[in-house]
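PROTOCOL LOG
Step 1. Enter all chains and additional molecules of the complex.
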Amino acid sequence: MNASFTRFLRSNGWSIGLFGLLGVLLVFTKLIQPSYGSSGVGALANAALPFAFATAAQAIVVIAGGIDLSIASMMAVSSVTAAVLMDGASEQSAIFVVIFVLLLGLTMGAINGTLIVLTRVPDIVVTLAMLFVWEGVALLILKAPGGAAAEWLKGLIVGTVGIPGIPTTITDWIPKALVLLAVAIGIVWIPVRRSRLGFSIYAIGSDALAAFRSGVAVGRTRVAAYALAGLFAAMGGLVLTMSTGIGAPIPGPYLLASVAAVVLGGVALGGGKGGLLGPILAVFILRLVRTDLTFLSVDPNITTVIEGIIMVGVVILGGLVALRARRT
Amino acid sequence: MKLFPYAAAAALVWAGMGGTAAAQDMYTIGVSNTVQGNGWREEMVCAIRAQARASGRVESLNIAHRNTDAAGQLEDIRNLIEAGVDAIVLNPANSEGINPAIKEATDAGIVVVAVDQAVTEPSAYIVSNNQEEYAYIGAKWLFEQLGGDGDVIYMRGAAGASADDDRNTGFQRALAEFPDINVAHEVFTGWQQDQGKQQILDYIATGIPFDGIWTSGIDNVIVDALVESDVPLVPVVGADNAGFVGQLNSVDGLVGAAVTNPGSIGGAGITLAIDLLDGNMPDDRTVLVQPVLWENGTEAGRAQLAAAADPSLDPEWPVSISVPNWTTYSKEDIIACKGPGE
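Step 2. Run joint prediction.
Step 3. Record the structure below.
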């Protein structure tokens, strides 16, 4: 085994473990529901979409040593803004709506980050306050679910991709939602991660003082991390509007789910460690657990308990693994 | 020709057996609900379970019951489609957001019945309480009690929920008929008891007088707050929740009205789903259950309230635990909250 492969295994061990867990769960799903197939995978990708963007947003902030409690509310603002602007507008103009909403997300995130840097009030307090602010903004924009979405946007996450030359028996297993997720996250995260900004985000999350002494602009990096989170939250809001065809002003259950997936995905809550792949895999695992519990017709009140136990169990396990790694 | 009657009887029995055999297909029904821990919704789910069991026609229920949004309900409906259910009974998170999944379900030959609130997808069937009328008759009664003049507190449901929006339409319609009624304070209780009580206590603490309170079903805690704060009891409108109905019967000096909003509508959804699976199509895709107002100011109203009162129910549960012609379970069944095979 060569050195670079060993290093790959060590730095991605947690994600590889999650991949394995997802694989086991898929096999288990097929066993309890023999008809489970490509359409089920498509439904899973669709269900995971908003959670995955919320989780990506949360992961960046947590890596930078913070936490953002306003993510679900920013998603609601983005979702209603998109739905209101697209209502009655032409199909072509929707592209400008998408760009505007993404910029709006960046701005909301930057406002969160700037407030934290300027006021020096802890992240959790500022973003808790902003949770209510953005929630109110969403309700001001749209007081009840409504609006519309362009047909081509809705079509972006429906069905599977057709690739010329590849038989449909294979492409049936590639839902558009999954492709959209990979492209949207990759286009933002890969360049950031490889840039100076990416290193700075990890550095301030690891040790802000050391980062400062090594010449990292801590405040600016923090604002950038929150702005990126806002951008992913805006993507999450957009996919909500794309999947439901409307905007809903009341934030969905994405905040706690994002924190759960971030932790399950191997990002240290103290900051500086982890990536986006693990948390997104964790989202798929948590969604698939929900699907399995539906297939098994488990009592709905027990379902929530089981989801919680799985989360606590995996995190405890992760903590033990981390503890052992530190000792050796 | 003595044989003929026997032959006819035999033929009838034969036909009857054939008929029952055909009618006794057993179905698997999926359920999707997006509000958990609210008395009304819990009663709805128990009505679904009790009716499925009482019908004897449901093999098993597959219930997705959690707090989520429209996107989460899309997920639940798609999971139910994958699970291969014959019908889905759901309480929609909103009227449009889950249309894509409903369409996928009906395209796959699954019967979809929306209960409590309507959906705009034309392939779904709807059994709903008339929410606009619910708010209108209660608000109108309240404004009449005040002689058409006064300050009212308007305690709504959850901001952005379609049932709340429909109720607001009804409330505003009544308000337009009484120009001298002033909405002194408008809040969203989120249909949460603790939140509603805190909100009314906060308002009482301001010392600003008010003449009446309209609630969107968070009612008994409001009466509790008035009694505990030792302020004059103003007229209160609520829903037919067991706790509030009890208060209308027993709290000295309380004038109020309960508007029915049966959570047992869930049971009616099961009945309609089985009917549809049997091939019996209703005349209309939408069935609206009309609300009724019980007031404790008149003899007739007091009699209705006394008959409806049921201290054996959870105070948050509506007392209308059945829907006439639609549900066949007993009170014990719905309280036991057991589905088929449990």
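Step 4. Note key features.
The CA atoms of residues 94 and 162 of chain B lie 6 Å apart.
The domain at 7-129+263-290+321-336 of chain B is CATH 3.40.50.2300 (Rossmann fold).
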